[in-house]
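Need tokens for this chain, all 443 residues.
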Amino acid sequence: MSLVRVAPLLMLGAFLVVNPGVAQAQNPTTNADNPECLGVSCGRPQEEGGGGGCGCGGSVWVNYTDDGDTLAYTDDADGDGRADDRDNCPFASNRDQTDGDSDGVGNVCDNCSALSNSTQRDADGDGKGDDCDEDQDNDTILNGQDNCPLIPNRDQSDLDADGAGDVCDSDDDNDGVADGADNCPRVRNPEQVMPTDGSQCRVDADGDNISDNGDNCPGLSNSDQSDKDQDGMGDACDVDVDDDGILNDADNCRDVKNREQTDDDRDGLGDACDRLYCLVVDPTQPLKCLDPKAPFTVSAGGTAKLANAGDGLRPPLFANRNGAAMEYRWTVSKRPEGSNAVVENPQGAVTLSRDWQYTYVDGSVPHFVPDSEGTYELTVEARLAFADRVFPDQRVSTSTLVLTVGKGDGDGPNCSSVPAGFSLTALGAALLGVLMRRRRREP
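Here are the structure tokens for all 443 residues:
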């Protein structure tokens, strides 16, 4: 047997000597009350990696069983440690899941947090739900006085004085014939007999050269008469152009039906109409996105805030490659005058990722505690363990996290390291796997 084949085994043996806990991890005496469970944490899920409350992306959960540690992944778009299907605000970090009005929508994303409104309807897209919005169409006319509360009409014109404004009245002249079929929609003629003065039947109230009786937006100029969803209401006055149930102002694909509103790269443009996939890590810096088709690139998360010195931060690590073995090193490249804070566990190796975010192994989780208020810059340098297939010459990438620390600046959860679960032994096993892969690829 060659030295190349023996080396990994020797390394593993040495590792077991250094970490005797491996042999003791399944000692039956540690949990005598449960003969089927050989570990101290059997059946207790414990959060590992992922967002951990940072708003940084997908989480990883570990379920401890009698067969050892079982990894299970869960989608967690906001990185608050709550799986999306059990999160009352799947796209807004809220670890405590507070829901003051008990409508199933958490306070941080509820557009009427003090009033139960599970539908979250918002006709004018102003962020205030219809159930608690005193001006639902945002036309400056309060709902109680507005003759078209869901369609803006500041002039409040109402030809037939029936209480319904012309822009939302399907029969402006109240003659029993709907405007679209009425040969004279602004003159009452239930028998559809043309009046002597025919000019009244060719009314063009909005001045778009389309007579009102054939205008799909009679109160709003739209000479092209575009009607993408062909519902009879022109796009210019249709609050839901693509007819997917999502109002235009809240729709991430305004012209393409996509009720699910999925946006995998988080750029604000729905997958159904997004032609370019480029992961936005920091919403305040959308142009600094991670393109999987570009050379190897890492991201430190862009920007972060902490309310006070002494609060902890676990700097996130993203890359435009999933599941790539890499080594990393964090350094404090800028700090306030007088600060001596450093990154604990600044270097290590990772291979496990979920949605482009890498999971640190417990025992080497980077952790930073600022010792004074001000602006810090934490820079990470990452190096691929193996050459990239498409861009073999690009193996190193750096990125900087700008951290602002100051009273009142912390507007999000405290991004501290998550509870321990992976042991130093697991770290060694991961590094051993990297070594074995490297050996196999070397000539």
